[in-house]
Amino acid sequence: MTLVLLVVLVALIFEYINGFHDTANSIATVVATKVLSPGQAVLLAASTNLVGALWGTAVAKTIASGLVDTGVVAVTPQVLICALLGAILWDLITWWWGLPSSSSHALVGGLIGAALAAAHNDWASIIWWEGGEHWWQGKGLLPKVVLPMFSSPLGGFVLGFLVMGFIFAFVSFLASRTGVLQKLGRPRFLNGFFGKAQILSASAMGFSHGMNDAQKTMGIIALALAGATTAGTLDELPSWMHFLRVEEDAQTGFEIATWIKIVCALTMAAGTAAGGWRIIKTLGHKLVKLHPVNGFAAETASASVIIAASHFGIPVSTTHNISSAIMGVGAAKRFSAIRWTVVERMVWAWMLTIPVTAVIAWGLVRLVQSLGLD
Q: What is the spatial distance between Cα 68 and Cα 74, in angstroms, rounded to a whole number?
């Protein structure tokens, strides 16, 4: 029982770190364009993260029962703690370096590495592709992680490019008109208009971040409690603590309890409120010079992709999407507007996240086994 509660505690620590590590995803652009002060932006992100985290459970179910085959490997509290520690360590390292890496992929990598070690390197413990007439209806690492790992940032880039291109074309059309419409093409008016519109797009980013990222921790907690319920660990609890029991349905998978959603949502909001200024500096200032119209286009594109992915239970990277959307917006101006040296550092962080966290978690499980604590 103590180990189960420790899993919940470590999962909430990860959720808190996820909040301040990924705060930049929601508010970097709105801070960089000076539409909101850092304090105002953090408050907006925290509140919208909270609402988004309570909206749906599709992503949580993917993490809980769509990546690791519990029929092959016993997902014990020790395994989950090692998976979470692998993700936490990588998040802290990349936060210190100011690199916008993916907390989502860090958790996935940690879960894969820990499961492999627990299964004595039996790759059958990982669900690669299973069920579903269409790829988005199935479950497994390939349809839920690998394909979206490439397609969602590409979608963010293309959509950011198209949104920015449409705005440029529309503004040019208005600027060519005479009379009262001519002022609509002036920079001062545009900055004022899109400055107000960016508050809405930044809110959508915060909502989408909570809707996708907060659910990942919900899935881990549900997985730990379901395992403890099946093993009978929670049978001796007093009746008033039976809310900790989580049952798995063969058809629908885990049902995420309301208390789990609320606790995870509040924890992420608290982490968000703590801020993440190192990564904000990278996304908001170093990647490409942003004006309110650019921030609006990037946030609108990124939020659209993430909300669509969340609907299908796909745990995509908020970091990858907003970064690629910012690059798409910059490319719509001109490709030379993007600082490619910064992009190179970010891409290396993206590529390394899953394998590094998998190796860390694998090593931690092996250490636990060698100490006889499994």
A: 10
Show the domain range for 115: 2-368
Round to whole Å and give the CA distance between 120 and 369: 10
pLDDT tens readout for residues 209-223: 888 888 888 888 888
Q: Is the pLDDT of residue 248 over 90?
A: no
Q: What is the pLDDT of residue 279?
A: 54
Q: Among 17, 218, 10, 24, which residue's Cα sits nearest to residue 103?
A: 17
The answer, yes or no, to whether residue 135 has pLDDT greater than 70, is: no
Q: What single string gives the DSSP state of each residue in 161-209?
A: HHHHHHHHHHHHHHHTS-GGGGGGGSHHHHHHHHHHHHHHHHHHHHHHH
Query: Residue 246 CA to chain centroid, in angstroms?
Result: 24
Q: Is the pTM of this model over 0.90?
A: no
Residue 32 lies in a domain: yes
pLDDT at 366 over 90: yes
Indicate whether 340 belongs to any domain: yes
Question: What is the count of structural domains for the chain?
Answer: 1
In angstroms, rounded to a whole number, what is the distance separating the alpha carbons of residues 24 and 206?
A: 10
Q: Are the beta carbons of 256 and 218 closer than 8 angstroms?
A: yes
Contact indicator for 297, 329 with CB cutoff of 8 Å: yes
Segments of the chain assigned E as strands: 248-249, 253-254
